[in-house]
Amino acid sequence: MSGRETIFVVEDDPLVADTVTRTLREYGFDSQWFRTAGELLGNLAQRVPELVVLDLGLPDRDGMDVVRELRGRCDCGVLILTGRDVVSDRVLGLELGADDYVVKPFEPRELVARIRSILRRRNPAAAAGEARRIALFDGWRYDPASFTLTAPDGDVEVLGAAEARLLLTLLEKPNRVLSREQLAGGSDLQPFDRSIDVRVSRLRKRLRDDTQSPHLIKTVYGAGYVLAVSVRWEA
Question: Which residues, 6 or more positions from 93, have their beta carbon under 8 angstroms from its beta carbon?
């Protein structure tokens, strides 16, 4: 994607709105915040965004009605971001035409990954123009563009943003010991910070790697972790 797509954020909580809009701008999107459904719908006459991030609990209208109206007025992506963790709301939102449904609290970078996924699905021509690499290792396939991990038996699952970043870092430097700081993207970790260790443990489970005697992601005590297999990349 071009990275300059416009994202409208409809959220009545200023703290949540600030987190979302700042994150989007950090990742190269043009984001605009609207506190109410009325503000959003009034601005559609001037500009139609590529995607709307929509809270359901708005002060002037129910968000489900807004999803329905958006689908009738314009062709843009819709991602519902809400505190309503109810299956019936999730199903209704998707049936009304929302592209995805994310429950608060949320991980901002995972939200960006979901937004990018929606934009790729809605603009396949642009997505096809991107360089796309697939990692092949020990019978597994991993697509970094969509966070899709395919097992040797064909089972497919989509990783969360944190696990996806960790796996990509390991795949790009196989058979090399990487420190916890390197796996954290260069962030300074406190001596008792076990966040990377927890992520590695979760990733091992995704890869069906024996946690007691792993053969894919090995622990190098006092140094970090190593992906102990060969990796082949294909276009």
Answer: 56, 63, 64, 67, 80, 101
User: What is the pTM for the complete model shown?
Assistant: 0.56
Domain ranges, ordered by start, for the chain? 6-128, 134-234
Long-range contacts at 137-145 (CB < 8 A, ≥ 24 apart): 137/171, 137/174, 137/216, 137/227, 137/229, 137/230, 137/231, 137/232, 138/216, 138/229, 140/207, 142/167, 142/168, 142/171, 144/168, 145/120
The residue written with tokens 């001596």 in the block is: 191
Average pLDDT of 91-95?
A: 90
* Cβ-contact 51, 7 below 8 angstroms: yes
pLDDT value at residue 190? 54
CATH superfamily to which 6-128 belongs:
Response regulator (3.40.50.2300)
Determine phi and psi for 204, rounding to 5 degrees. Answer: -60, -40
State how beta strands 134-137 and 156-158 pair: unpaired
Region class of 154: left (phi > 0), else alpha (psi between -120 and 50), else beta: left
Architecture of domain 134-234: Orthogonal Bundle (1.10)
Number of Cβ within 10 Å of residue 83's Cβ equals 13
Looking at per-residue confidence, does 187 or 46 come out higher?
Answer: 46
CA–CA gap between residue 103 and residue 107 (Å, rounded): 10
172-197 b/e with 16+ CB inside 10 Å = b? eeeeeebebebbbeeeeeeeeeeebe
Q: Is 96 helix (H, G, I), strand (E, B) or coil?
A: coil
- Equal CATH topology for 6-128 and 134-234: no
Q: Is the pLDDT of residue 202 over 70?
A: yes
